[in-house]
Amino acid sequence: MKTYNKFRQKGKNLLEVIPHSSTKKESIFFVIIGITSVLIDTLSYLFLFYFTGSIKFSKFVSFIMGAVFSYYGNKNITFNVKAKKSTPLFFSLVYSISLGLNIFSNSFSLHLLQNKETISILISFFVATLISALFNFIMMKFFVFKKKK
Fold first, then answer.
1. Residue 75, Cβ density class (10 Å: 0-12 exposed, 13-18 middle, ≥19 buried)
2. Which has the closest alpha carbon to 44: 64, 29, 26?
3. Rounded CA gap, 17 and 74, in Å?
4. In this predicted structure, what is the pLDDT of residue 121?
5. ∠50-68-62 over CA atoms, to 5°?
6. Is the pLDDT of residue 108 over 80?
7. How many other C-beta atoms are found inside a 10 Å radius of the C-beta of residue 40?
8. 38 FRET partner, CA 20 to 30 A, in 32, 48, 116, 136?
9. C-alpha span between 7 and 73 (Å, rounded)
């Protein structure tokens, strides 16, 4: 808490705390790409479910559509790198681990809150999303789309 107050006293916001301007830019684009990916996932899911009536098929396809957008958006815009042949495989691995981390942290958070009221569900969803987003950003920046020096 001392560190946060120290930055607040100096009038700095969270983005000013991030040391490198390229990391600031990447984090902003990462959030924009992430929000867009979620919108693609959601709208695709609703569209497909409306026309097929299949929940599993609709969610499977919509998740892949959001992930494909996320891959190309982060590769070309956020991190602006040329992909190697193995990059899609590493991206898929990170996304899979992140999915597991998201499910685990959501369940654990719900367990800690010890109820399933709407507010607990929303808090757990937010916590899980934040944890998996931070994991994704770190792994994408330093592992999947690592820039050559």
1. buried
2. 64
3. 22
4. 87
5. 15
6. yes
7. 19
8. 116
9. 32
